[in-house]
Write a structure and sequence with these properties.
Elements: H1 9-15, E1 21-27, E2 30-38, E3 42-45, E4 48-49, H2 50-53, H3 57-69, E5 76-83, H4 87-105, H5 110-115
Parallel strand pairs: 3-5
Antiparallel strand pairs: 1-2, 2-5, 3-4
Length: about 140
């Protein structure tokens, strides 16, 4: 089993400093702790630049979407610690966390962020396996004889 590198708060503190607003986002089993630093720029996810952490452009756009909605592309710096889930779930968790932190920063952004769907946590999750079935809904193959 491979070991995961755990990013300490020292790596996070080296990137951004000063006062911040915090938000927590989630999606499936992924959770993201987001800190928004005003008057700074850049997005750091688990000690890496977000373009390095998320290779696919659609995940990068997901992370940037609440910042673009708030029109604060160069006005804030974002530091994120994300755990659990897959890459897509982590991107959605970060999006949710950034939106919540931006509302902590400026309450008037809540209406536009909610209208674009950034404030609501997606409640869908994997259904559990049920007794007598092969998977959550897959029944054993039926045989006539």
């Amino acid at each position: 089993m491979a070991t995961k590198k755990i990013v300490t708060k020292k790596a996070e503190a080296a990137t951004f400093s000063g006062r911040y607003k915090q938000g927590v986002g989630g999606r499936k089993t992924a959770s993201a702790q987001v800190r928004v630093f005003p008057k700074q720029s850049g997005i750091v996810v688990n000690g890496k630049d977000y373009t390095e952490y998320f290779a696919q452009p659609r995940h990068q756009m997901t992370v940037l979407s609440p910042i673009k909605t708030a029109q604060m592309e160069n006005a804030i710096g974002v530091s994120v610690l994300v755990r659990g889930g897959g890459i897509s779930a982590q991107a959605d968790a970060i999006r949710n966390g950034i939106a919540r932190a931006l509302v902590e920063h400026d309450v008037e952004l809540k209406k536009s962020l909610r209208r674009d769907g950034h404030m609501t946590r997606d409640p869908r999750a994997v259904e559990r396996k049920h007794y007598g079935l092969k998977k959550a809904r897959r029944a054993p193959q039926w045989a006539k004889r």
